[in-house]
Fold this sequence. Notes:
- The protein has four helices and 35 strands.
- By secondary structure, the protein is an alpha+beta fold.
- A five-stranded antiparallel sheet has the order 29-35-32-33-31.
- A hairpin with a 5-residue loop joins β11 (135-138) and β12 (144-147).
- The structure holds 2-acetamido-2-deoxy-beta-D-glucopyranose (9 copies).
- One 2-acetamido-2-deoxy-beta-D-glucopyranose is lined by residues 216-218, 234, 236-237, 239, 241.
- This is Bulb-type lectin domain-containing protein.
Amino acid sequence: MHRAQNLSMASLILFLFLSFTLFFTALAQQRYSNISLGSSLTPTTNSSWLSPSGLYAFGFYQQGSGYGIGVFIAGIPQKTVVWTANRDDPLVHGNATLLFAGDSGLVLEAQGQTNQVISTSESPYSASLFDSGNFVVYNSDRHIIWQSFDYPTDTLLSTQRLKANSQLFSANSQTDHSRGIFRLAMQADGNLVQYAVSTATVTTQDAYWATGTDGQGNNVTLNLDDDGHLYLLNFTGFNIIMNLTDGRYPTQKTIYIVRIDFDGIFRLYSYNLTQNGNWSVLWSSTNNKCAPKGLCGFNSYCVLNDQEPQCLCLPQFTHVVQNNWTAGCERNFFPESCKDDNGDIRIQELTNTVWEDNPYSVLFLSIKEDCERACLEDCDCVAAFFKDRQCKKQRLPLRYGKRDMGDSNSALIKVGKSISTTTDRVEPGKKKSDQLGRGILIASVSIVALGLVMLAISGILLYKSRAQPYKRINANENIVLFVS
Ligand SMILES: *[C@@H]1O[C@H](CO)[C@@H](O)[C@H](O)[C@H]1NC(C)=O
Ligand SMILES: *[C@@H]1O[C@H](CO)[C@@H](O)[C@H](O)[C@H]1NC(C)=O
Ligand SMILES: *[C@@H]1O[C@H](CO)[C@@H](O)[C@H](O)[C@H]1NC(C)=O
Ligand SMILES: *[C@@H]1O[C@H](CO)[C@@H](O)[C@H](O)[C@H]1NC(C)=O
Ligand SMILES: *[C@@H]1O[C@H](CO)[C@@H](O)[C@H](O)[C@H]1NC(C)=O
Ligand SMILES: *[C@@H]1O[C@H](CO)[C@@H](O)[C@H](O)[C@H]1NC(C)=O
Ligand SMILES: *[C@@H]1O[C@H](CO)[C@@H](O)[C@H](O)[C@H]1NC(C)=O
Ligand SMILES: *[C@@H]1O[C@H](CO)[C@@H](O)[C@H](O)[C@H]1NC(C)=O
Ligand SMILES: *[C@@H]1O[C@H](CO)[C@@H](O)[C@H](O)[C@H]1NC(C)=O
C-alpha cells in the first residue's frame, strides 16, 4: 500500500519534471530575446527591445512631448501601453539613456542623474521580453528575480494573474499613463472590488462594483487565459470560483487584455491581428458610464447624455477647474443668512439623483415640503435627501452623485436668492403657506422625537445590511495602497 503510493508519487514527480524541462527548452529555443548586461536604450535610436515575434516591446514610448518607459504592444498600429515603470514620475527627455547595469537592475540616466527603473534584490545577469508581454530579469543562475507580470499597473495580459492583496489602478487618461482615480482590488477575502481611489480610507460606500465572492475561497486570484476566459480561481483548491467570461474565443492570431480604463470601467478587449482593425470590447463590468464613483468630483453629479457621462454642478455651484470633472464644484454665492428669515434662501430640487449616504441627521417626515422646511430652518443643512419618508440632512461636500431614473430620491439643495436663473424652481404661494407650514413644523417636532428612536434602530440595521457584501474591506485598507 505504502510502496504503491510512493511509486505513483515518484512517477508524478518525474512527469512534472519532464513537462517542466520540456516547457523550458521550448522557451529557450524560440521564446525569448536575450538582453545582456550593459545593453542600453535611448528614446530616439534603439528605443526598445522586442519580444521574439515582435509583438511586444520594452522600452521608451512617446507620451506628449516626452517619453515613458514600459511594455507596449508594438506589432499593431495602435501602440497600446500595457505596463509602465514608475508611472507617476515625470516624463523623460529625449537625451536620456536606459541602462541594464550589473549591480542594481535597470537604471535611467538623464542630465547627470541616475534613477532606478527596475530594482532587484539580487544582482541581475540577463533579461528577456517574452511573447506574452512579460519582461523578466534573471540572476546568474537563471532564476527569475523580477518580472513585470508581478507588478501590474492598469492591464492584465493573457496568462497574467492578479494575486490576492494586489490591485490595478486606472490611468489618468487614454494617453497619460500615470495613476488615475479608480482601482480594482483583488481582496484577501476573495472579493474583487472596484473603488474610487480619491479617498484615503476606503469604505463600502466607495465601491461601485464587486463580484461578491468574499468568503468563497483563500488567496483567490483573477486570471485571464489566451481564449479570453476571465475568472476567479481558488488558489488552494484550483477550483473556479466565478467566471466573468466563459472564454472559448478564438486563440489564433488574437490577443486579449483586461484593463481598468481611465473612465473607471473594467473591460476585456480583443484584437484580431490578421485584420489590423481596432480593439473590441468583449465584456465590461458595467455599461453605465456614470457608475464609477468619483468620476464627478465633490458637489457635482453625473448624467448620461447619449450614453456618454457628463458632470453637472449643484445649483449655484461652478466647476473648480473648467473641463476637469474630478476637481468638482464649489459655491458661487455667499448667503447673508443661513436661514429662511426673509425669503432669500430657497430650495431647489434635483429629482432622481443618488448620492453618498452620509447624513448628519435623519428625520421621518411624510411630505417633501416638510423636509425642505427642516433644511431651511437649520443653518448646518446645505442639502437634504428625501425618499421613502426619510429626510436626510447633509453638509458639504456631497459626493458620488448621479442621476438614476429608477431611484425616487430627491436632492433638495439650499440656494440663495441673489442669483436667479430660468431653471430655478418657482414656488408659488410660498408666503401664504407659512402658517400651515408652522403647524406642520410643530407636528414634525413630535414626529422627530419618535423618529430619532426609530433612526437609532434602523441605523443599526442599515449599517449591518450595508456592511455585509464587502465586509472585510477595512482589514485590507492598508495592505495594497502602496502597489506601484
Ligand atoms: C544570454 O546572455 C548571457 C550573457 O551574454 C549568456 O551567458 C547566456 O548564455 C544567454 N542565454 C541564452 C539563452 O542565450
Ligand atoms: C542599436 O543597437 C545595436 C545592437 O545593440 C547596435 O549594433 C547599434 O549600433 C545600435 N544603434 C544605434 C544607432 O545606437
Ligand atoms: C536634455 O534635454 C533637456 C530638455 O530638452 C535639457 O534641459 C538638458 O539640458 C539636456 N541635457 C543634456 C545633457 O543635453
Ligand atoms: C476554496 O478552497 C478552500 C480551501 O481549500 C475550500 O475550503 C473551499 O471549499 C474552496 N472553494 C471553492 C469554491 O472551491
Ligand atoms: C495565502 O498565501 C499566503 C502567501 O503566499 C500564504 O502565506 C498563506 O498560507 C496562503 N493561505 C492559504 C489559506 O493558502
Ligand atoms: C467557467 O468557464 C469554463 C471555461 O469556459 C467552463 O469549463 C466552466 O464550466 C465554467 N464554470 C462555470 C461555473 O460556469
Ligand atoms: C480576424 O480577421 C480575419 C480577416 O478578416 C478573419 O478571417 C478572422 O475570422 C478574424 N478572426 C476573429 C477571431 O474574428
Ligand atoms: C477604428 O476605430 C476608429 C475610431 O473609432 C474608426 O475611425 C476606424 O474606422 C476603425 N477602424 C476599423 C478598421 O474598424
Ligand atoms: C483635475 O483635478 C484633480 C483634482 O484637483 C487633479 O488631481 C487632476 O490632476 C486634474 N486633472 C487635470 C487633467 O488637470
